[in-house]
Amino acid sequence: MVFIVEDDYQSMSRTAANEIASCIKDNPSCTLGLATGSTPIGLYDCLVQDFEAGEISFKEVTTFNLDEYCGIDGQNDQSYRYFMNTHLFDRVDIDKAQTHVPDGMAKDAQAACEHYEQAIIDNGGIDIQLLGLGHNGHIGFNEPCDHFPKATHEVALTESTIQANSRLFNSIEEVPVSAYTMGIGTIMAANKIVVVASGKDKADIVKRAFYGEVTPEVPASVLQFHHNVVVVVDKEAASEIL
Ligand code: GLP
Asked: Per residue in 186-217, pLDDT tens?
């Protein structure tokens, strides 16, 4: 595991964006695994800058997002599809048909999850997977539990995640109570993983995830077993380990 501590959010975003940009430069038709949440927003801005500077093109890039809320469609401004369109896809030259986000409105949850997992496999897997970190150690929406879920599945969100994500909704009642997420197995199958975390409120979970025991009670801790992980945090998020 490579662990990089940057001074602030901006330099964390740039360093992590460079990992993704070099993947695209090395292989213009690569497959990116993408994440939502507040943390990667600066990173997406950096990638848009690189695109505008003519340094990278997304024309042949394929993407798979980690997760999506159940029960809201892609037009809804709280959906992760909407987030990705706004923060990245609508700002670069990507072919939208090559961008994949689980369908939050799927009628048959199991079939939708199997289809998503198979689409990743058929595509040849993910070259580089971006991850944020939930306060309870969740990655994607893999919440703390007694095992590491293997493949894409529907998950009930924990109270703490609903609470944390309610800041983005008008009221807590509007926060979906379940989501579709890649499994831990799906994430661990990526060739390379880049994790970003920022701010004092992530310091405790950064320590537990990367310097603590590997346990499904802290889903991100499994990343300690991945062969090619780069963790990029700012000083505040690293404050418990420095
Ligand atoms: C959500 C997403 C995660 C994300 C997490 C942390 O629950 N499903 O993929 O990593 O939030 O988000 P933030 O970066 O806003 O702290």
From this structure: 999 999 999 999 999 999 999 999 999 999 99
Annotated catalytic residues are 67, 136, 138, 143
CA distances from 24 to 56, 227, 240 (A): 7, 20, 33
User: In the chain, helix, strand, coil percent, each to 5?
Assistant: 40, 20, 40
Is-above-0.85 flag for pTM?
A: yes
| 55 C-alpha to ligand 1 centroid (Å) | 28
Residues whose CB is less than 8 angstroms from the CB of residue 212 and which lie 6 or more positions away in sequence, other chains included:
218, 221
Does the beta carbon of 136 lie inside 6 Å of ligand 1? no
Helix axes 41-52, 9-26, angle to 10 degrees: 50
The best mutation among 9, 39, 154, 202 to test binding of ligand 1, ranked by most ligand atoms within 8 Å of the C-beta, falls on 39
Picking from 150, 126, 154, 159, the residue whose alpha carbon sits closest to that of residue 141 is 154
Quick check: CB of 38 below 6 Å from ligand 1? yes
Rounded Cα–Cα distance for residues 86 and 179 (Å): 20
| Whole-angstrom Cα Rg for the chain | 17
Ligand 1, closest atom to CA 196?
14
